[in-house]
Every structure is written in C-alpha cells, then in structure tokens.
Amino acid sequence: MSEKQDYDVGVTNADAADRESASDMVSGGEYLEKGLPADMAKDLTAVEDSDVALRRKIHLVNNAIDEIGFTWFHAQLFCIAGFGYSVDSQMAMVQSAVKTYVDYQMKGGGYPISTEIYFAGLITGSVVFGFGADLIGRKLAFNSSLLLSSIFGFFTGGTSSYAMYCIFMFLSTVAAGGNLATDVAVFLEFLPSKYHYLNTSMAAWWGVGQTIASLISWAFIPNNSCSDPTDCPSRMNRGWRYCWYTNSGIVLGAALLRLFVLRLGETPKFLVSTGRDEEAYEAIMAVARKYNRPCSLTLEQLRACGEVEHTYFDTSKVTSIRTALRGLWLTTRTNVKILFSNKLVIRSTCLIITSWLFIGIAYSVFYNFLYIYISTHGGSTGSSPFIVYRNATIDNFVGIFGPILAGALILIPRVGRRGTMIFGSLSCMAILFAYTTCRTPSADAGFGSATYFFINIYYSCLYAYTPEVFPTRARATGVALCLVADRIASAFSPVIYWYGSQTGSSVPIWVCGAVIGCLSILAFFMPFEPSKKRSV
Q1: For residues 441 and 475, is the Cβ–Cβ distance under 8 A?
Q2: Is residue 329, in this structure, part of any structural domain at all?
Q3: For residue range 26-42, what is the model confidence (pLDDT) as tens digits?
Q4: Rounded distance, CA 368 to CA 366, Å?
Q5: pTM
Q6: Containing structural domain, residue 212
Q7: Based on the structure, what is the number of domains in the chain?
Q8: Three-class DSSP category at 384
Q9: Residues 283-319: b if buried by 16+ CB within 10 A, e if exposed
Q10: What is the pLDDT of residues 269-280, one digit of tens each?
Q11: CATH number, domain at 107?
Q12: Contact status, residue 244 vs residue 116, Cβ threshold 8 Å
C-alpha cells in the first residue's frame, strides 16, 4: 500500500479509506457509502484527524462561507492581515539596517549579538502566539500583536545602552514574530474557496513592508549617522533612532486599524473545533447580515453533526498563570499529535517543516557571503550608504510583484501550488548563481531585484500552502512549528557567517544556492495539492 493511499478519513472501514487518493477528487458515491455528504469530496478531508463530527461541521462552514462570497470585509481583512506580513519584513529590514550604527555607538563592533537576539524574539513569538492561537483562539493574538510590537519598538528607539536596546528589540520582535503565525490562518479561515489564490498574493505585503523599511533607512541613515566607530556619540548618530520611531509609528497605525476599524471576531472554524457551534453560527451570520448576503446555514445543521472530540482545552478553567501554561502545554501536545496522526499527514508535515528549515538557513547564509565573494573577486556593489539603501529600495519594490505572479500561477490547473513552488525555487537558484558574476552597483540592483522577485514567488506560495494543508484544530500550531524551524535555522546564519568569513571560503555560496534549488524536490513530493480542493 502506498503512502498516498494510507490515511484515515475518519471511518472504520480501512479498505474504503485506502481507495481514496489525497491528490485527486473523490466521487460523491464513496462519501455516501461512508455516511458523509456527497459534496464533501470538495474538501481536503485527508488532512483532518478521525473526528467525523468536526469534518462535517467544517464542511458546512465552508459551504456557508462560499455561499456568502467575497465581501468588503474580506477586502479589509486582506489589507489588515496582509500588513502583518509587512510588519514582519519591516522589523527584519530595520534591525538589519541600523545594526551597524547601533554597534558603533554602544558596542563598537564584534559578534552580531543583536541579530541573534532578534531571531530569539522571532522564535519566542512563534511559540507563544502560534501555539497559543490554538488554545485561546486567533482573535486575541491577531489584535494584540501589532500593538505590542509598536509600543516596544518606540522604547527600542529611545534606549541608551546596548543591553536595553537588545531587551526592548527582543520584546518588539516577539510580538511581530507571533503576529505572522496568526495572520495567514485568520485570512484563510474566512476566505471563500474561489478566492484562495489571494492567500498566496497576500504575501505581496511582505515586499511592501521591505520597501517601507528600505525607504525609512534610505531617508534617515545616510545623513544622520556617524562613519567612525571610534567617535560615534548619540548626537551624531540619530538615524537609527529615527528609523525605529518611524517604523513603530506605522505599525501602531496598523494596530489601531485592527482594533477600531476591522474589529475582527473569532474565526468560525476555530469555534466549531472547540465545540462552540452557536458562536460559530453567529460569526458567519454576522457577515451575511452586514453585507446582505444569502446564507442557508442553520444552527440545527451544525448541532446535528454531533459533538466534536473533547481534545481541546477549556479556557474557562484558566485561573492562574500555572493553569494557563498547563493548558498551552496540553493543547500543543494534542495538536502536534494531530500533525503526525497518520502516514500521509506525517509525510506532509515533515516535508513542509524541512522546506522552512532549508530556506531559513540557505537564503540567509547565501546573502551573508555573497558580498564577501563579490568583493574578493574584484567587484564593488556600493560606494556609499546612499547607493546601498537605494538599491535595497529598488530590490524590495520589485519583490512586491513576485507573490502577485504566484497568485496567478496557482490558478493554472497543471501548475497549482506545488508547481509554483518548483518554478520559484529553481528560478531563484539560477538567479542566485548568476548573481555571483555581479561587479557593479547597477548589476547589484538588477540581480537583487530578480532575486527578490523569484524568491517571493516561492515564499508566498509556501506561506499560503502551509496553513492550507494543516488540520483546522492544529493549524496555528503547525504554522508556528514551521516558523520556529525557519527562525532557528536563520539564527545559525550569523554564526556560519562569523566563522566562515574568517577563512574567506566560497563553499557556502554554492552549497546554499543548491539547497534552494533542492526545495523544488521537496515541493514535488508534497502529497497534497490544495488547488483541487477546499482547505479544512
């Protein structure tokens, strides 16, 4: 029996389960034999666990969301959730842009400690907010993360010692990193299946955030920073503070929009997965009533599906920090079991996490060594900070359009999500290897723009694919695991760079470029193609 056949669809008839292929549509007759609605074949039921009642409820919720269709609420959510992508990339770009000048003023150079603190914050945020979103719901994490990130960002810009800078940057990054773990899940769980391609195109906001951060750095760093690490008092080095203040102000604006304009409620799929059918029904009907859309779903239909398995943690029992931590542990343990519940889901989970691990270390290490390689081979990509930040702005602006193309590619039947990831990874590998021939600032701008464009095709599709193929109850936990893997791998890049740069070796460039190309192999063997079915 092949792995593609060996999975549980929530019924006791194993022979019937073996006949179903995860990659192909299943006939309605087979579902009728199993006592399930015939049109449930439209749903990606293979990724769910054995809870038949939950799958029935998710199926009804999908039908209701599709019946309501795309509304102004979804357009708002696309922008406001998308800004979570923007904030994540803004934090990375701002931290990277100001690091040298913060070191000049407070530390004097040496090992990049602040970079490791930054990655530690991302990892912590992914764990706390990502795992917590499957315990307390998506709403609280979604609404609080940007607000906390902006507040601590303002404090970061006002610090006067390196220790305090690292502490407040860590806290700001925890909130920003946790935000990304919930944004894509929230948007997916409200989105009609016809418009799932927008989940991929939403990553265009990542390029928007990178462009904003590059513009901020370009505006403040060149004319408000010192160039001599031995003489760099605060009065001559205000640029990095202006960057943090401006960026935090933009993030605060997005946080206020989430709190007072969109006013997001809990997602219906999370509510039904925790046995709160009435709240899920009201959440769906609230959208239908507000935009005068038809919705034939009834509360009785949800209740008639039966009771979901009580493997979730009842948040009403939280009376202290101790019980909250215990609840987080129990929920996470249960959800991890769901992500490794049968052979097919295990294969999917392992391939996705491995993809995040590889891209996390390969892309970061490649870029760290790239400019050393170019300089040792007679090239010069930036004669001044102005040129460096100008090129970065151009690169990131072009990167916006990669996810837009990816959103179009996944609509092509023979391409889909996996084909788009294969195209993105192979194209990026080719551009990165060609990048090593760069010798001038103009060539750097051209190769950099092409790199950001193609890597964002891959990244955007991977970001969208990841929550689509994780079960509803464990969706945020699965996304969090992937982000933790990505960020742990990225945290090793400064270490590799620090020690590798002492030897001047060019081996990391060729190894990492090849690893990025190998991501296409992982994508090819991923068992699910969400383009053919609705996510659960």
Answers
A1: no
A2: no
A3: 344 444 445 556 566 67
A4: 5
A5: 0.81
A6: 72-265+337-532
A7: 1
A8: coil
A9: bbbebbeeeeeebebeeebbeebeebbebbbeeeebe
A10: 888 888 889 999
A11: 1.20.1250.20
A12: no
